[in-house]
Design goal:
Shape: globular
Number of strands: 7
Order of helices and strands: EHEHEEHEHEEHH
CATH architecture: 3-Layer(aba) Sandwich
CATH superfamily: Flavodoxin domain
Number of domains: 1
CATH topology: Rossmann fold
Number of helices: 6
CATH class: Alpha Beta
Length: 222
């Protein structure tokens, strides 16, 4: 069986800086393994914040906002693996990534969890502080979407302040490279399992998380 792993990275930084450099490095690792790598830079997207409607838990339709978020979601659904990467801003996740998590998660992904059993990797970029907290938040988001999180043995935290500093963190980049290698290995293992058994590796359980809305009602609108 021959497959070409497809990985998409989500860059939550407002700048073409260290986070972008780390993802470009990760892409070179993936491409050496024959994988396809696609970049989604949130700074280049038309993305509105969550609006005042407040009916996300009740509506059976995807988000009513009209911007580029559904395009990004469709790329994630088509991929085998997704890397979430964001810098630390104000001791927390950069606002672009936070907005995307809210818009994509509540507006599109909660209907039937289409990212289930896709392979996830997480990278945080920080001067020194709160890298672990941002890494943990993005990891929990991947788990919420029932993804299979693959690490390097350590959280992938790259230390950088000024533009270009990410290239100097040898240990951080080593962890990033190892994570990408293991993501590709896992993608191959999952594909082999599906080929042999015709089934997903892990059960995803009840996909309907809309309280009070039966699954068949949701499916009529999807």
């Amino acid at each position: 069986m021959t497959i070409i792993p497809k990985i998409v990275s989500i860059n939550g930084s407002e700048r073409d800086g260290n986070t972008a450099d780390v993802l470009r490095y990760a892409a070179t690792v993936a491409e050496r393994r024959g994988a396809q790598w696609d970049f989604i830079d949130l700074r280049e997207m038309r993305m509105q914040r969550c609006g005042p409607c407040g009916d996300c838990n009740d509506r059976a339709l995807p988000c009513a906002q009209t911007d580029d978020v559904p395009i990004a979601v469709s790329k994630m659904i088509a991929a085998d693996g997704i890397v979430f990467a964001a810098p630390v801003h104000g001791f927390g996740t950069a606002s672009l990534m936070q907005t995307f998590i809210e818009r994509a998660g509540v507006g599109y992904l909660r209907f039937d969890r289409p990212l289930s059993n896709k392979v996830a990797g997480v990278i945080s970029v920080a001067r020194r502080y709160s890298g672990g907290e941002v890494w943990a938040q993005l990891t929990v988001n991947a788990l919420l979407n029932r993804m299979i999180v693959v690490g390097s043995g350590f959280p992938c935290e790259v230390q950088a302040l000024h533009k270009g500093d990410a290239h100097k963190d040898d240990e951080g980049l080593t962890n990033v490279g190892r994570m990408v290698e293991r993501m590709i290995d896992m993608i191959f293992l999952l594909a082999e399992h599906r080929e042999l058994t015709g089934k997903e590796t892990l059960s995803v359980g009840d996909r309907n998380e809309r309280v009070g809305l039966p699954l068949n009602e949701l499916q009529e609108h999807l």
